[in-house]
Structure formats: C-alpha cells, structure tokens
Design brief:
Structural class: alpha/beta
Number of strands: 15
Helix content: 40-55%
Radius of gyration: 22 Å
Shape: globular
Order of helices and strands: EHEEHHEHEEHEHEHEHEEEHEHEHEHHH
Distance between the termini: 10 Å
Strand order of the largest sheet: 3-2-1-4-5-6-7
C-alpha cells in the first residue's frame, strides 16, 4: 500500500509523528506498506506556530521514511494576510457559543473563503501522490478548520471511484483538550464540535481511530454517524546491550559527565507540558543529591525553545534562578530517526535517548502542568519499556491509562509537593543505580503491564483491514 500522512500539529517534532513511526513499522513488518510516506505537516495552516508557518522552519523532520511536501494554497493572499485570516477563523470557531448571529455569519463566510483554496491544495496533493490511505493526525481538532474542510472535500472526490480513503487518527478531541491562549486566556478549542467543525462521517472511504476509551466516549456525543474505534498507541522497542559509538559521541558533545544520571523529559517546550515543573523537580533533586553525596542528574528536554518563545524564556530564566541551568539540555526537537548533522553532531531519536539514559542509571520525568489536557501521556510508558523509573505529576487520565498499580513517584505541582517528589525520586534513582532487587521487579512489572496495555496485535489487524480495502496498482502511483 501507498500511505500518505497529514498532521494538524504544524510541527516536525510532534509526539504524534513518533507514534506514527511505531505504527508504520508495524505495517512494514507485515509487508503491507511500501515506499516512502508523502507527508504534509500542516505548516501552511498553523500560523500560531510562528517558527514553521508557512513552509517549515530550520529544523528538519529527519526520517528515512518521510517524503516531505510543502505546498501553499493559491488564494491570492500574502503570507501575513493569510495568517491573520486563519487566526480570525480559529478564534471565531473557538468562541462560537458566545458569538451573535452576525459574528457567526462572518466566521462562516471567512471559513468558506479559505476552505476552497485548501480543497484545491489537497486535490493536487492527492493527485500527485495517489495514496491508498491517508492518515490524518489530529485533524478533527479545530486548529485549521478551512484545511480540514478542504481535506474532507478533496478526499471525497478523489476516493469516489477508487478503493482506499482517509484514516482520521485523533490523539486529542475538543472537550479534553483544554488549552488556553497564554496572552488572552481564551480557550483555543470549543468544548464540543459545531456546524463549522468538520467531523469524520461513516463510509467505506473513512476510518476513524482514537487512542483511548475516554476519547471514544467523548466522540460518542458528537453529531456524526461515524463511530471511532479505539487503537491504543504502539510503543517503541528499546534494544538492550552495550551502547554504540553514536551514544558515546552524543554524550560527549552534550557535555554529559560520566557517572551522572540522565533524566529524560519527553515533551515539547509548551505551556501545558510542564517543563517548568520538571526544572523545579531537578532543582530539588540537585539539592537532595548534594546533601546525600549522590551524583546530580542532568535533565534532557526533548523540545526546542522556538515553539512557544514566551514560555521558553520563562523556563530558561527559572533554570538560571534555581541554579540548574548548567544541568539542563534542550534537545531542540528530538528527530524521528537518529542522524549525524552537517556540523558533525549527533541528533539522537527517542529510542537512542532511552538507551543512553538507561545505561546512565537515569529515568523519565513526565510533569504535565495542568491535569486536564493529556489524553494519555506516554512518558511513563517510555520509562517502562526502557526498564527505568519515572516521576509523574498527577493528571486526570493517568490511572485509566496506566492503572493504580503502576510503579512510579507521583506528586502534585505545588512547590512543597515537588520538593517531596524530588527527595523520593532521588532515593529511587539511588536504588536503581545500586541494583535494588525490589525496584528491579517493580520496573519489570511495569514493562509487562505496558506490553498488555499497549498491544501491537490490534494495529496488525487494522493494517490487514486497510490492505483488504485498497488495491494499489502501478497506474495509481
């Protein structure tokens, strides 16, 4: 099959892409997916991602399977004017319940005017790449309603007389994604979809997948005849055994002293992800380690400082104020595959970073700053598959996803709670470093539980169903 990908995130470092890579590898292992994957990362309709709108930023989405495409809608607008109109539509869609009739009519008019060029945009994209199935990641959310409307219309026409279609794959939905604009405080999404927000519809050319029972329950109340199926995320495989030269070089290039544990924070530097909480946790762990004579950890944050510059400045200033700036590394967006950059430095992917942290007797910190945005949160699962301990702030779906018996340090986000968590997690790292048998068994139990809760077999079944619903011939490519 020929697979294509559209992501609504407007970023090359989204966690969605990492999970998609794991899912894609499952399909490749079955021999059902061939060729590279034409990929549109949504740069053209996400002006809120200033470093990447309208055609991507300096950071590459490095992967051997990804065939990057960068189109622009032909709407007669310059880049700045299009950004203004897209943001006006986004804000109007989010504030829909509070708009009067005239404001609603104006938002609808602006949406329609932008949707038509995006229909042409995706029509050309589909004709050029001729995929059997398009994976549309987080396109149900209303970040780019004109683009989503255009994708729906273009796909309906393209697949009208051929097999295949669109897999709408949602990791977030409206009510459960309570993100607010840091400047105005306004909610970025409506609480539920409405007449301007396109939804998947039942039909032979549409599959709708969500990652959790909670999202399926939310979607059950949506005004559509489509019923999403739950397919939980596929976790990476983390090889065991000695490190390789790229790991050693990376540690040297990042000035990570031997003997000091590495804490991975596998999130973007974005307000709700709680990187500031992770920095406060590191500061507490540093103080506890110095008092106990233990090695001081490093904190490696997956995200870069360019997605949310205002928040990034706050995090950097906090690390300086707490005296841990020298112990924090912002990895500038972890790539989908490890590679050596043009300057000779290594950029390690998620799996390689997990291998390195495990070899350094480290762990994972996953510290959402708010309880009601994460719909799964894979940080604890990544720690489990690598056999490492983790520290987690409380968030709403933790126990539904991981179970009450998952072994980790749990804490609140207040200063006193973070200090207590720092002391507890420092003690856990000490036990991990010294090979404590009870902790090793707890970590092994975590891994077994994750293998049960994140099985690959449903995705293998899904890939077979997609293959049965598509006929890829040379004429179609």
């Amino acid at each position: 099959m020929r697979i294509a990908l559209v992501s609504g995130d407007g970023l090359p470092t989204s966690g969605l892409l990492t999970v998609f890579r794991n899912v894609l590898e499952t399909g490749r292992a079955l021999g059902l997916v061939d060729g590279s994957v034409p990929t549109d990362l949504g740069y053209a309709w996400r002006p809120d991602k200033e470093g990447y709108y309208p055609a991507g930023g300096p950071r590459p989405a490095h992967s051997p399977w990804m065939e990057m495409t960068r189109r622009q809608p032909r709407d007669g607008l310059d880049v700045a004017a299009r950004a203004d109109r897209l943001l006006e539509v986004r804000d109007g869609v989010a504030a829909w319940d509070g708009l009067d009739a005239a404001a609603r009519a104006e938002t609808a008019r602006r949406t329609e005017a932008l949707a038509a060029p995006f229909e042409a945009y995706f029509t050309e994209w589909l004709e050029e790449h001729r995929p059997d199935w398009v994976f549309a990641l987080n396109m149900t959310l209303s970040d780019g309603v004109p683009a989503t409307a255009g994708l729906h219309a273009a796909a309906e026409a393209f697949y009208a007389d051929r097999p295949g279609g669109v897999v709408f794959w949602d990791h977030d939905l409206f009510g459960s994604c309570a993100i607010h604009d840091p400047g105005t405080g306004a909610r970025l999404y409506p609480y539920e979809p409405h007449e301007l927000t396109p939804l998947p519809r039942a039909g032979e050319h549409t599959r709708w997948v969500v990652i959790s029972d909670g999202l399926a329950k939310e979607a059950a109340g949506y005004p559509t005849d489509a019923v999403p199926e739950v397919l939980t995320n596929v976790l990476p495989r983390v090889p065991e055994g000695p490190l390789e030269e790229r790991h050693v070089e990376f540690a040297r290039q990042q000035r990570l002293d031997e003997g000091r544990p590495l804490l991975l924070d596998p999130v973007r530097v974005f307000q709700v992800k709680g990187v500031d909480v992770a920095v406060r946790l590191l500061a507490g762990m540093r103080d506890a380690a110095l008092a106990a004579g233990d090695p001081v950890p490093y904190l490696l944050v997956f995200g870069g400082l360019d997605e949310d510059p205002r928040y990034a400045r706050e995090v950097v200033a906090l690390s300086e104020r707490l005296g841990v700036a020298a112990d924090v590394r912002f990895l500038d967006g972890v790539p989908l595959s490890s590679f050596r950059a043009e300057d000779g430095s290594w950029r390690l992917d998620e799996v390689d970073l997990l291998r390195l942290a495990a070899a350094r007797a480290g762990g994972v910190v996953f510290t959402p700053g708010v309880p009601d945005v994460e719909t799964m949160g894979l940080g604890p699962a990544l720690a489990a598959v690598a056999g490492m301990p983790c520290a987690v702030t409380e968030y709403d779906v933790f126990e539904p996803v991981y179970g009450a018996g998952f072994g980790c340090v749990r804490m609140g986000t207040g200063d006193a709670e973070v200090r207590t968590g720092a002391t507890e997690f420092g003690a856990v790292l000490r036990r991990y470093r010294t090979g404590d048998a009870a902790l090793r068994e707890e970590l092994a139990a975590n891994r077994r539980e994750m293998e049960a809760r994140f099985p690959e077999e449903p995705w293998r079944r899904f890939w077979r169903e997609l293959a049965a619903g598509a006929t890829s011939t040379p004429e179609r490519r």
